[in-house]
Amino acid sequence: MSISRITEVKSASPISFDDAIRQGVARAEKTLKNIKSAWIANQEVLVNENGDISEYRVHMKITFLLEE
Amino acid sequence: MSISRITEVKSASPISFDDAIRQGVARAEKTLKNIKSAWIANQEVLVNENGDISEYRVHMKITFLLEE
Amino acid sequence: MSISRITEVKSASPISFDDAIRQGVARAEKTLKNIKSAWIANQEVLVNENGDISEYRVHMKITFLLEE
Amino acid sequence: MSISRITEVKSASPISFDDAIRQGVARAEKTLKNIKSAWIANQEVLVNENGDISEYRVHMKITFLLEE
Amino acid sequence: MSISRITEVKSASPISFDDAIRQGVARAEKTLKNIKSAWIANQEVLVNENGDISEYRVHMKITFLLEE
Amino acid sequence: MSISRITEVKSASPISFDDAIRQGVARAEKTLKNIKSAWIANQEVLVNENGDISEYRVHMKITFLLEE
Amino acid sequence: MSISRITEVKSASPISFDDAIRQGVARAEKTLKNIKSAWIANQEVLVNENGDISEYRVHMKITFLLEE
Amino acid sequence: MSISRITEVKSASPISFDDAIRQGVARAEKTLKNIKSAWIANQEVLVNENGDISEYRVHMKITFLLEE
Amino acid sequence: MSISRITEVKSASPISFDDAIRQGVARAEKTLKNIKSAWIANQEVLVNENGDISEYRVHMKITFLLEE
Amino acid sequence: MSISRITEVKSASPISFDDAIRQGVARAEKTLKNIKSAWIANQEVLVNENGDISEYRVHMKITFLLEE
Amino acid sequence: MSISRITEVKSASPISFDDAIRQGVARAEKTLKNIKSAWIANQEVLVNENGDISEYRVHMKITFLLEE
Amino acid sequence: MSISRITEVKSASPISFDDAIRQGVARAEKTLKNIKSAWIANQEVLVNENGDISEYRVHMKITFLLEE
């Protein structure tokens, strides 16, 4: 009988959305065990004064399995 | 002045959605106090190779009262 | 030329969601004629101090046919 | 590399939502292989002239694995 | 590389929605560091037997920065 | 076994959203008993020719308990 | 200080959606005063055995002004 | 025990949305039996270089009854 | 490499929704070049004191191509 | 035959949401004529290092009437 | 007079979301003609026991033109 | 007291979604100052006759700061 919890995180990367997702999952791994998946809720880029994309931001719902 | 927190869980049962809800609340009770309610966000069934429903999955938002 | 009205109700039962739906339809039958259907908008359970599910709550949109 | 398709069905039962789900999955099994899951999109009951629930209707999205 | 977490709270006040928000943020401050923002998901008032508004309830998503 | 009904109202005030909510609940009290809560669905302001906010409009779903 | 109520209706016509809307408003006029507007929530057509559209169905939210 | 399937189509007409719906249902009739209804998900018009509406596009979910 | 902008308009007609759409597109043509499409976000009718539909209102998102 | 346009703005105030709305409408008045209404899409507060609410942010859709 | 159908697929790739989309379209090409577009409904990553992203999953709605 | 405006654009690229976003922001930079962010509303790919992805399309809401 499996029970899992969902935690919401926002992670950012100067490179790409895919990298922001990897960073977010990696950070969550530091405190959570049995991470199973991450659903992408929102994607946003920040733009600096030169008009360049400075940050790729991803809002994710991470699911991790609870121990019995 | 009451403040409560909401935690998202996914629980599963081989029997029914109602049972999956009970299991999810019971598991949350192990780590949380003052659980007040659980709102049903999503319901899904898993199907095994014989075409039978093997699992009833419920995605819930559980509300619990914070102590002052 | 059929015209029907929709009324929103929340009904509760200590037993199950299905029972809460039956109770809601039965109560609506006391004051409304020609009830045709009930669409389930939301489902929530209430939890008592012992951590048991004390109430199954259903929020429904009931459609009933208006007489010409 | 897995690819699956999603098909939408509405199934009904005079007994309960759980039964309507089982019926829907069983019917889909007749024509589809590798059914994996069914997500519940909508739930509605039909009411007859006596005010009794005559039908439990479920609108589901069924996911099945495509062969390579 | 910033990572932040989102926690969902419901807070209430007998005075106004703005006050309920302040209370909710203040309570979260007791247990969380680096709170950055709170997005208002839902607003509801409770009414007592005299027909007066007894409580302003706010459902918020609070974002706080995680330390590296 | 509690059953409640939901009625949708739009109320307006020249002062503030909070006042528009109070007005709406007060008006509903004239015709309905056992009002329990009001959920805020939408908020809009109207603007007059001078560019000033002339009206705060709130669209609410009011829940009231039905007598057995 | 204006307060208005919203009632949900489904009306049908064998001719067109516009006609179904007119029919719905006309029927509501029989029992309600001060009808101001009708927002179109949903549109659906029914199809008979010959494959022809037999009915244009509109689900509307009708707003009417309450008297002080 | 009725089971129906839902298929999504986009149909277009140079005349009107109603005509686009009729065309879509008529085309579906060529390959599907027991079509019961079509729910309108989206409506869009295309505009040509002269600024005239060249096409009325309707995105519909067509429900058809499966044989036992 | 095509880039287009989207502008939101509300247009009204005493005749029908289709006419309100044509009017809205025609008015946008006065100030915008390269209009490509209009997606229908919302539809509402206004009702006068005699209970007749006085106005068909359409809320649209108009897409137009930007010049390089 | 009225046609209006909708523009989306985000405005902020250190005092309250109501003030943020007034500021947003006032700023829009500087560049737009015939502003009619502002619908509140989103509300968010920013929190400073002391844990106090430093800014009330409102995301609004402002409707203004186009001249013929 | 163009009519197109929409089919929903979920495709996965160990490399990236863009690759998962390419794979999904390529697989659909095996059984469908005149594919025109694919709208991204959902994106999710799966995580293995080492905490690495093992799969990029995309849920898409693929539109293909029906022959007359 | 900061006020910003939101403009909706659709941009396309033959390479990837990330590139389409960069193109859209770069094009907006030609006419707008103080661009702060771009939220991704929708993502869609177009497919050519050979079944290859010919275009990555992104629908974005770009936020830019208004000068006092």
UniProtKB/TrEMBL annotation, chains A, B, C, D, E, F, G, H, I, J, K, L:
Lineage top rank: taxon: Bacteria
Pfam families: Dodecin
Protein name listed in UniProt: Dodecin domain-containing protein
InterPro entries noted in UniProt: Dodecin (IPR009923), Dodecin-like (IPR025543), Dodecin-like_sf (IPR036694)
